[in-house]
Amino acid sequence: MDKRSVIQWLSTLLYNANLPGFIQGRIYRGPLKSVCVPGLNCYSCPGAVGACPLGSLQSSLSGVILHFPFYVLGLLIVFGVLFGRLICGWACPFGLVQELLYKLPTPKIKLSPALQRFTLLKYVITVLFMVVLPLAYYYADGIGIPAFCKFICPAGILEAALPLAAIKPSIRNALGALFSWKLLLLIIILATSTFIYRPFCRFLCPLGAIYSLFNRLSVYGIKVDLDKCIGCDKCLHYCPMQCYNVGDRECINCGACAEVCPTKAISLGKK
Amino acid sequence: MKKILTSFVLALSLVTISGFDTSLSTNTSSLQTKQNTLTIMSKAEAAEISEGVAAPDFTFTDLATGKVMNLSDLRDMPVYLNFWATWCPPCVRELPHIQAKYEQYKDKIHFLAISLDGEQAAPAEFIPAKGYTFPVGYGNEREISRAYNVEAIPMSFIIDTNGVVKAKIVGSMDDTDLERFLQKGL
């Protein structure tokens, strides 16, 4: 197993270290829960010891009292400035799930430039589901809703709804149309993951969208030594995220390019 | 590559260690609390709070009167107990139905909506602002949700005059659902 896989597994385990929760169906609610983990990991996963940054961001805009999410935004900026989308590549459990499925021996599809444009969809989703819809609901009927968690998030279904429903009849009885819709979405995303590399991260994930804004500025990440670069573009050819440039907004700093670079011009580290 | 790995692992473990450290110390403090209220917590930890189980007692402040009460004070009539929070959209949507049923059944059933908000000010401001008159309580949010094993809200219970749970439901109820649920206590 390479270093990145080890860290991916390790962070998945660390985020979900409350293993007894999976048997009891009980959500850990200790003080650590007020810390957001950097990756996408549902707060309501029985194993989760921390909070999901996206969930926390939305909870500040849901219900009948709005709060400005100083803490969560501040944390996201710190994570972003330090690591950018390195977090997507190295410390996101849902990214790991999609990567594992991509290892299945199915035909693999590279996105056409037209389809590549749909990577902009995640910015639309971020603005619409993280900000506009929660606020629209708040101003329309006084109750803000966590729209991304409620209508889209497949990680919530996979990590929280499914295990909790498996253990608790009371949760099972409460499942309705929203669950069916998101389960369908999860199945589509997981199935797509077997032939498209990380489709959720590329098209839908607001967290990836937020971190992508910091990708070029981040302290750590991928860098190119232009003195050594011969412009062969082998890096881009082998990039699983199909970046247009090494380290651009789509780059999850996985380091695949560094491995294939014939002149060793690319490296991961402090930029 | 090495640097990045080390700093990442360091950062990750720092967060985890600091968190676990506090969680350990809180665990001990909650253990002490548990010993003080041993009957409550041990029962609660042992089993899921469902039909036929004694409803764990807890202390709360009645937000309208400021009176500190116990659930066990309400034994002259059955109790409709609801757990909710201002940040929970389905819970808040249920409140108008609770108000309507409260006006209808307040002489036959105690209504008690316990807020699991992080702070008392949230329900204390919201409830009067909306003109709700059914009793709303606030207590030690963490201990109460642990005692009742609240994994999702809204969560509602019917508790009989012996303090035993007669019915439980997770999820938001409309008028019809709530009527049917309350009938189990009547």
Describe this structure in a few short sentences:
The complex is a heterodimer of chains A (271) and B (186). Chain A is mostly helical and 271 residues long. Chain A is 53% helix and 4% strand.
Number of E-state strands of chain B: 7
Radius of gyration of chain B: 19 Å
Give the distance, in angstroms, between the N- and C-terminal Cα atoms of chain A.
26 Å
Q: What structural class do the secondary elements of chain A suggest? A: mainly alpha
Content-based structural category of chain B: alpha/beta
Report the count of strand segments of chain A.
2
Contiguous runs where pLDDT drops below 50 for at least 5 residues of chain A: none
Question: Which range best describes the helical content of chain A: under 10%, 10-25%, 25-40%, 40-55%, 55-70% or over 70%?
Answer: 40-55%
Largest sheet of chain B: 7 strands, mixed
N-to-C series of helices and strands of chain B: HHEEEHEHEHEEH
Described by the principal axes of the CA atoms, the overall outline of chain B is globular
Main β-sheet description of chain A = 2 strands, antiparallel
Morphology of chain A: globular
Return the CATH topology of the largest domain in chain B: Glutaredoxin
Residues in β-strands, percent of chain A? under 5%
Keywords:
heterodimer, A: 271 residues, mainly alpha, Alpha-Beta Plaits, 2 domains, globular, B: alpha/beta, 6 helices, 7 strands, 47% helix
Could you explain the architecture of this structure?
- The complex is a heterodimer of chains A (about 270) and B (about 190).
- Chain A is mainly alpha-helical and about 270 residues long.
- In chain A, about 55% of the residues lie in helices and about 5% in strands.
- Chain A is built from 16 helices and two strands.
- Chain A has helices at about 5-15, 20-25, 55-60, 70-85, 85-90, 95-100, 115, 120-140, 145-150, 155-165, 170-175, 175-195, 200-205, 205-210, 235-240, 255-260, and strands spanning about 220-225, 265-270.
- A two-stranded antiparallel ribbon of chain A has the order 1-2.
- In chain A, helix 8 (about 120-140) crosses helix 14 and helix 10 packs across helix 12.
- Chain B has about 190 residues and is of the alpha/beta class.
- Chain B folds into two domains: about 1-35; about 50-185, Glutaredoxin (3-Layer(aba) Sandwich).
- Chain B has six helices and seven strands; from the N terminus they run ααβββαβαβαββα.
- A seven-stranded mixed sheet of chain B has the order 2-1-5-4-3-6-7.
- In chain B, helix 1 crosses helix 2 (about 40-45).
- Chain B is globular, with a radius of gyration of 19 Å.
- The interface between A and B is large, with 46 and 40 residues.
